[in-house]
UniProtKB/TrEMBL annotation:
Sorted UniProt keywords: Cytoplasm, DNA damage, DNA repair, DNA replication, DNA-binding, DNA-directed DNA polymerase, Magnesium, Metal-binding, Mutator protein, Nucleotidyltransferase, Transferase
Subcellular compartments: Cytoplasm
Protein known as: DNA polymerase IV
Origin species: Sphingomonas psychrolutea
Cofactor(s) essential for the protein: Mg(2+)
Domain UmuC, first and last residues per copy: 10-190
Biological role stated in the UniProt entry: Poorly processive, error-prone DNA polymerase involved in untargeted mutagenesis. Copies undamaged DNA at stalled replication forks, which arise in vivo from mismatched or misaligned primer ends. These misaligned primers can be extended by PolIV. Exhibits no 3'-5' exonuclease (proofreading) activity. May be involved in translesional synthesis, in conjunction with the beta clamp from PolIII.
Site keyed Substrate discrimination: positions: F19
Catalysed reaction equations from the record: DNA(n) + a 2'-deoxyribonucleoside 5'-triphosphate = DNA(n+1) + diphosphate
């Protein structure tokens, strides 16, 4: 589909309801049922939800009591992060058969640059199709894929045919397609920013494109140039996993600002899982853990702790991250974003050092 174009061929591959799908795969009695990964206790929080559960409005970071109110038949399953990490390693081994340019975003999603076409497949569309077929055959799980000429469009496209589908945004349609979409779907535009845009009359990519750069700079500061570019379908960031990296971090903007301790801690734990999956895969272990908090008014704070020896296990990173977030709880005001970062590596790590931003309840 993008076979003979001189532009890049970028895939965004995203597993479908990853944690919940693993549980349904491993326990046939859960198949077809609404499943939530998490602790169903009174102060528990949903870590992930199956598509059957999502039809009832059950999603990540939702308090367990609310989830059960929405779906009385919801089945809670305790998370098994060691299993999810093992499956993620299987998936990334498949990716490596097609390209060396792999940029993981989390355990269940990654960008791939397949411009070089290592396996001689006719199109990027067919490459994505083959990768998804291999994931299904080797793991028993489905994945969705977006195919485009840059990372921003590929990520948008992967969500367009979920679950178990794929969608391509070609160079001749990219800019026009972006203009049809609500800005709330744009990667990096969280709920608060989307609401601010709507107050300024910006509801779609077309509305955003109509605003001059100086207008965007007045209202959005340093983010203005990014918004100006993506409204035109432009994104020049490379898929480059080989740059020396000084830290590994993951952060999430919640769909709704959080005030409950349990929900905030659950968000931190999801970030711990993402970061530790990267550290374990790369065998890169740092001595400093940092938790980042952004409040609803956009004020931001960080809390860090350094150790004499590298943080060498998931349990260590989990415990120190929980200690750090609990140092600012109960929250003085609602929290819109949390992040976890490991730095001060014992040895230089190899991958691109780029913030990971995504919605807590993404597909």
């Amino acid at each position: 589909m993008l076979a003979d174009s001189p532009v890049r061929k970028v895939l965004h591959v995203d597993m479908d309801a990853f944690f919940a799908s693993v549980e349904q795969r491993d326990d046939p009695t859960l198949r077809g049922k609404p499943v939530a990964v998490g602790h169903g206790a009174a102060r528990g929080v949903v870590a992930a939800a199956s598509y059957e559960a999502r039809t009832f409005g059950v999603k990540s970071a939702l308090p367990s009591v609310t989830a059960l109110r929405r779906c009385p038949d919801l089945v809670f399953v305790r998370p098994r992060f060691e299993v999810y990490r093992a499956v993620s390693q299987q998936i990334h081994a498949i990716f490596a058969d097609y390209t060396d340019l792999i940029q993981p975003l989390s355990l269940d999603e990654a960008y791939l640059d397949v411009t070089a076409n290592r396996r001689g497949i006719a199109t990027a569309w067919l490459t994505a199709k083959e990768i998804r077929a291999r994931i299904l055959a080797e793991t028993g799980l489905t994945a969705s894929a977006g195919i485009s000429y840059n990372k921003f469009l590929a990520k948008l496209a992967s969500d367009h045919r979920k679950p178990n589908g794929q969608f391509a945004v070609t160079p001749d349609m990219g800019e026009a397609w972006v203009q049809t979409l609500p800005v709330s779907r744009f990667h990096g535009v969280g709920p608060v920013t989307a609401a601010k845009m709507q107050r300024l009359g910006i509801e779609t990519g077309g509305d955003l494109r109509a605003k001059p750069l100086d207008f965007l700079q007045r209202h959005f500061g340093s983010s203005a140039e990014w918004y100006y570019a993506i409204a035109r379908g432009q994104d020049h960031r490379p898929v480059n996993p080989d740059r020396v990296r000084k830290s590994s971090g993951s952060e999430t903007t919640f769909r709704a600002d959080l005030t409950e301790n349990a929900a905030i801690e659950a968000g931190v734990l999801r970030m711990v899982d993402d970061v530790w999956g990267w550290c374990e895969t790369r065998q890169a272990f740092g001595r400093t853990a940092t938790v980042k908090v952004k409040y609803a008014d956009f004020r931001q704070i960080t809390r860090s702790r350094s150790r004499a020896e590298p943080i060498a296990s998931y349990a260590e990173l989990r415990d120190v991250s929980l200690e750090l977030i609990r140092s600012v709880l109960p929250a003085e005001k609602a929290i819109r974003l949390v992040g976890v970062t490991v730095s001060n590596f014992e040895h230089a790590a190899s991958t691109v050092d780029e913030p990971q931003l995504f919605e807590a309840a993404s597909a």
